[in-house]
Model the fold of this input.
Amino acid sequence: MSDGGDSLAFGSLALALLGGALRVSTPFLFVSLGECITEKSGRINLGLEGILVLGAMSGYGVSLASGSPWLGVLAAGLCGLMMGLLHGGLCSLAKVNDIAVGISLMLFGTGLAFFLGKPLIQPQAPMLPSLELGAWSDSAQLQSALRINVLLPLGLLLALLLHWGFRASRWGLALRLVGDNAAAARALGYPVVPIRIGATAAGGFLAGVGGAFLSLYYPGSWNEGLSSGQGLMAVALVIFARWNPLRCALAALLFGAAGALGPALQSQGITAGYYLFNAAPYVLTLALMAASWTPGRSLAGAPGELSLTQR
Amino acid sequence: MSASRIQSHRRNLLRLLGAGAATHMLPFGIGRAAAADKLVVGVIYVGPRDDFGYNQAQAQAVAVIKKLPGVKVIEEEKVPETVAVQKTMEAMINQDKATLIFATSFGYFDPHVLKMAEKYPNVRFAHCGGLWTEGKHPKNVGSFFGYIDECQYLNGIAAASASKGKKLGFIAAKPIPQVLRNINAFLLGARSVDPKATVRVIFTGDWSLPVKEAEAANSLIDQGVDVLTCHVDSPKVIVETAERRGAFSCGYHASQAKLAPKGYLTGAEWDWQTPYTQIIKATIEGKPMVNFLRGGLKDGFVKPSPFGPAVSAEARKKSDAVKAAMMKGDFPIFKGPLVDNTGKTVVAAGKVLGQQDPLLEGMNYLLDGVIGQI
Done:
């Protein structure tokens, strides 16, 4: 291939990765923002994978039954909220470990979703509409890369809002205080347990919405293999992002691009080692975890009450 | 506590008796008559039964055999291709007294079905797609499969006729022989219309990965591919994505015409009721296990989907002519000279591989014109 061909292929690969990032990242974004809120309060919810799948199923079902995909998104969020409440409530009992509850919640959520979702595999539910941000361009590839769902800008806005809120708002400070030092929060008169339950429920809501994106926009179908671990990766992503919502958004886009790498390379005829490229998001998760974890020292930015980081 | 000890004693005793009895028994038939008057058939699926794809095609045949007199069917869905399938088979054999098991996913065969077949010589195991070899594999195992590459060839004709740039896309799960044979047949069908047509392949790595399949469909379409087909368990996401992007699609496993009313050209569908009923009939009549059962269009193992509205009259005519030749059984797809995409000759000039040729079931190359690597 000539030099001109190479640079052309490189440009189109970059475009493919951009498109992939914009298409695939939304569930990562919502789940990681939700987990960020939960972990800021000092709890960890590993059950978000289950909530994601349950949200995908319930969102699809409600969209199918009501004809309105937005009602589906709302229902998915509410399902997630209930699951979050369950997690938050259970973990507030004495001597309950939040990691163990999270794992059981993950299995419960996926199991329930598979059970109730059996009749939803066949039918086609109404999908969420897309925004044509690339309409100005003549390039079909650019148009398709910039065809995004309205949930993505909403998620990015939410990331900004959370970033500001954690630092500057009263509720943000209360949340962080509860997460960093429960005793101090109690001394100041903040209700520690209700705040934590509320934060877990809010995290569940966002994870549910992330699930609705999977079933109602991209790939846009309910299927038992739908999630392939995105909820779990999003939890790892929060740690990598050091509990910072803006970095969560960046990391979500990075993970989206990594997921698009395998198909994008193969479609351009670069076919060697596709197993490796297909594993890119998982390799990235491992590499980032290893790189961002220093033994013997708690992570910068980690909430002090988080069971994950306590020795 | 003492009761459970007695039970375990009794279980050991039974096991001893059973082992003794098994060595004296002929492989088939004898144990069955005593077991029950109804033939219990276990069916194991790797995914959900209504996936618009692989499992649905199997389940449609199972729905037919359920109506046969003297047959009781038990089913289990979503059994992974791991030791889990051995447990499912043992449960079906020991608890439900199943004496014929349809293990429908490719990865069940080696080692899971083979292991169970040695352990339970009185149970018959029918596996979809495995390559049963005389002398190497147990006699109570049989494999059935269809020459669906015939329909993929027809897909290729429809695809290349509809494509503007003659760039076609194939989204595949894993590079196993059946998948490679489908890709190559699709290419040969396309090249029979336009000798310059190319097929780009994306391997996703597993049978059901909806996000990756959608991503693969999008990147292929971004690269100028305008007809997609696939070999994954559920083509639903791919066909829907193609339709949304205004590309054409050819289906696989079952008909996805409903999902893409504009762009669905045709599809390669299974018709499993033929082998299912043959194997059940042989079991009920006490005949030996059908070890190697194959068939194509003319045997009613596979069928093409009806043409979609985007297929031109010319393409229909060409496709129907080839189909008629296949129905007569004189249309070998793989005839030399064939060169693979690394430049190696894989079928020498003048050599013709009939559809039944076992060489084809061990296919390990992609033909020249396929852009991809195993």
Remarks:
- Residues 149-269+303-371 of chain B form a domain with the Rossmann fold fold (CATH 3.40.50.2300).
